[in-house]
Q: What sequence folds into this?
């Protein structure tokens, strides 16, 4: 069952809604995780502000938190990760209006509201954006040893040492006589 809301009614009445969504019901989010376990707890609140010149603007605030299990970038095993955020949106009547106004509004993201607004999709979008880009267990360290070098190779030459020799001795390495 999908959570659809009437954004104008939510804002007009100053309502607050809350609930939880199993991660398995959010297919785009679940596809980015090692396991689809967990749930997203959310709270949505609407309000309306009157404009000085008349009319009003509708707003929506979404808060969410979740414990999810993306794959560790080092070992590919699930790593428990807490995500969450609170976002505020200005609601408008159409996608075209949202695209026009969004770059101008520094305080709110601008969304097209409506009588059948898909709240689950918004929650899923924000949860995806909150995922860490490189999840990793604290104990997992990336390997920096190279396979083609023996472990006891001693002190490696500094990366720019050969360049410094060329600069000092010329392109032939100092073998030319004047």
A:
């Amino acid at each position: 069952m999908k959570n659809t809301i009437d954004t104008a009614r939510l804002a007009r009445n100053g309502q607050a809604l809350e609930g939880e969504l199993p991660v398995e019901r959010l297919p785009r989010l679940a596809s980015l995780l090692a396991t689809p376990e967990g749930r997203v707890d959310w709270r949505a609140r609407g309000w309306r502000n009157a404009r000085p010149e008349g009319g009003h603007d509708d707003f929506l605030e979404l808060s969410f938190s979740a414990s999810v299990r993306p794959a560790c970038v080092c070992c590919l095993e699930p790593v428990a990760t807490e995500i969450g955020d609170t976002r505020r949106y200005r609601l408008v009547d159409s996608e075209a209006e949202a695209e026009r106004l969004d770059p101008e509004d520094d305080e709110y993201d601008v969304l097209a509201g409506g009588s059948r607004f898909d709240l689950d999709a918004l929650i899923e979008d924000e949860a995806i954006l909150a995922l860490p880009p490189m999840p990793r267990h604290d104990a997992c360290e990336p390997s920096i040893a190279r396979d083609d070098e023996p472990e006891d190779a001693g002190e490696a030459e500094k990366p720019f040492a050969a360049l410094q020799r060329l600069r000092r001795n010329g392109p032939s390495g100092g073998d030319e006589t004047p």
User: Anything to note?
Assistant: The first strand starts at residue 4 and ends at 5. The chain has a mean pLDDT of 84. The beta strands are 4-5, 16-22, 39-50, 56-68, 81-92, 109-112, 117-118.
